[in-house]
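Q: What does the assembled structure look like for these inputs?
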Amino acid sequence: MSEAILTPIEKKPIGFTVGVLAAAGAVAGLFIGTAQGSGLVGIVAGAVLMAVLAFVALEVLGPGMEKPLRWGVIALFAVAGLLLGSVPGLILGALFGWFFGWFAYWIGMGRYRAHLVPYLTGGQVLWHYSFRVICGAIFIFLITPILVVMPLSFNAENFFTFTPGMLRFDPEAYSLKHYRDFLTNPEWTNAVKNSLMVAPVATLISVGLGTLAAIGLSQSHVPGKRAIMAILISPMIVPLIISATGMYFFYSKIGIVGTYWGIVLAHAVLGIPFVIITVTATLVGFDRSLTRAAANMGADPIRTFFKVQMPLILPGVISGGLFAFITSFDEVVVVLFIGSAELQTLPWQMFTGLREQISPTILAAATILVGISICLLTTVEMLRRRSERLRGMSPS
Amino acid sequence: MSHPATDPDKIIGTTPDNALRNADRADARADGPVLAADGTPLKRSLARALRAQKLRALALIAPLLIFVLVSFIAPIGDMLFRSVENQIVKDTLPRTVVALRDYDAASTELPRDEVFEAAYYDIFYAAERKIHTRLGSRLNYEMSGASSLFRKSGRGLDDVGELYQDQFEALNEGWDEAGPWVEIMADPEWVTEQAAWDAAPEGRMPRFELREGIAEILPRTSEAYETFARFTQVEEGDSPLEEEPWSAVHTALYQDLSATDLSGYSGPRADMLQAADALVESDGFETVAFRDAFAEVDEDWVEPEIWQTIKMYSPAYTSGYFLNSIDMQKTADGPALRDADERIYGLLFWRTLFMSLVITFSCILLGYPIAYLLSNLPSGKANLLMILVLLPFWTSLLVRTSAWKVMLQQQGVINDVLVWLGMVSDDGRLVMINNQFGTIVAMTHILLPFMILPMFSVMSTIPVSYTRAAKSLGATNWTAFWRVYFPQSVPGIGAGSILVFILSIGYYITPEIVGGTSGIFISNRIAYHISSSLNWGLAAALGSILLVVVLILYWAYDRIVGIDNVKLGG
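A:
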């Protein structure tokens, strides 16, 4: 489905356009109507309004007047929204106006068929777009919770929900006070400090040992490879609660519960599967003749490793390291069990915050963490593409 | 499930393995063995190279393997061990366990008097070491009331010894002093060494020794005194020369004196001992039977239940925790189901499985269209949309859980929107959190990327031409999808489902925060037993059962998908 126009478009019969728009208007009207008190009035008003809009747009003014008409509709709806519900109403109204202006021409001019193959039946076209709408809804489900957190973290009140002030876009209702709390309250700053002390060390251990082992595992003759692989991946598969229970028993036996190294050790183990998986995946396309060539030219194995192999698998190693880092940085179950009050990490602090005292500072922390995840995600994606390019695979 | 990078037969280029096979073939053709440049047979030198390569690979893996074995597999093993381990009864009540050996747990009678005697000494010593309450709470898991019973008995049983102690003391003040006891019981050589150590405490205290021959004359007293002296030395770091013995020693002395005749005794303090012997034989000497003393402390001791419980849990290993975790209990007639109102774990396991299935199913339902869309869009658009899948995947679990808390609570975003739209009334806000619904919604969201990614990687390998071919042969849209496309995408569904199911079955954080009481999983119960009820054995048993389920699924996953085919982030 390329951007090229596959099907010549033509104007649809006006009856079809008016019908579709009336139906769409009825649905939108139902929502606005119930919000304003009467659903039935909303349906009727929406349907009539949209039918008139469609008729005016396509029959009275025609496609030639598309631009001014669409702006006009936006303005009209925005004013109507302002009257019904002040500032948020204005924005919603403008959005509605933009959508219906576009929708009227999209339907009426038959533009919806432009990018589809000409032989599709009406039902297939309908299904094609319904499927898109379903997928869109699922994407909204995926992303909304993360997006909702962000504006709420600027709440001036200690609420977990939007205040009327926020909905009115009253600047008074927004503040940075939760961020201030996050950055100055010793509980939070200590938690961040502890997390930053644990995660890099744990990452170093898992990356160092994990990369070596991945290289070993990628050799052609490893006795018991399957079993070894199963053991090395198991920290990812075994439920965290079980790992935490076992570690709590065992680490208290050897006296490292509640110590810094106990947590580092546990987090390093939990990060190892990710390093193994990403690095072995990078090694799949590794051309062995390169190391042989290096050896042929007199490089010793260590030099070969650092000068030839390492630069090529580095993207995989780094993204494995990022996975290990985020695992440690985000880990809470094991820390709850084997940590101590002085070693509270950021996730611990968030967890107790969520369970006990409800403070929107958690949302500020969450927003910052989302920012960090976006950075990490971008880095990993860039590394993945670079790695594929280095190995001569086509970037996907 | 072989890996293209590691399967010897798939590696492009030569490896020692290929060369070895070639050498084999050459040997079979030629008359003599093929020789390498240095004159050794080629086969041997290749075998050596192969061995060296294997060793090098193992040397690279070894550090990590050892690290994982020590810091991960060992803890898991420890947990499995704890789920059956039950040393505490045997360690705390060693004499009682021996005395109970021929007691029939199924009988409704009380055990013999010897058992009460052994239990008196055991509990007395345990109380001195302050470990009787720990045993009490252990047995309390099996028989409610055991905890308070043991706590009471630790204090209450002192009365027995004090009765004898007072009478001996009335006869001669010396019976309540350290000196005479040392003279009677201790080895003179040890006394000299201990006195020297007391004067200049350096190095280790000399270990207490009984006087030669005293163990034959006063067997019980010797044992009790030795226990006391060693305890004083080791646990308290005091010199037994200066400590007056426990009242249990007096009880033992009374028992010995009433059993033996000391008229022929001629050791130290013979007069004191013989006077005490005469006192014990006299009519006015007050005694108390152990059984009565126990009955005095608590009537429960003269019910058979506590003795049955001790008997049943006296072996070093027990199946009791496992029985508990499947709502059964050990009874005198073997394992039996608990009363209907005490069964919780069966329900919890069932609920965990059921909710994990619902979550897996919702993930399939929501993930399939997305994976289909992503694998059929041009790569530019697909990559852009992929970010919407990967962003939740990379976002902290706690962020997503707190987001759902914000969304679902009664004053939360969804309810606010519904009220604003007029779909629910302000006082009829929906309860969507702290129940199963909340857990299922939040966990479906959290685990959805784990379903989409494997599905996507399978679907992007399905050629578009197959469905086109099917359609051109006359298949309807539905037939082309259901008979041609869908069967090819099943491996992706399988991989994603097992992954999501494994992950959800052991989830802890999200159910804990949004699950309330009806939406919690077995993991939450394990955490409860570790941190609140402190019944670690039961937590370990529950964990072991969960682990077995997960390992079976892990094995299936390895079979179907291959653990080295797990992909992270597309």
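Residues 170 and 176 of chain B are 10 Å apart (CA to CA).
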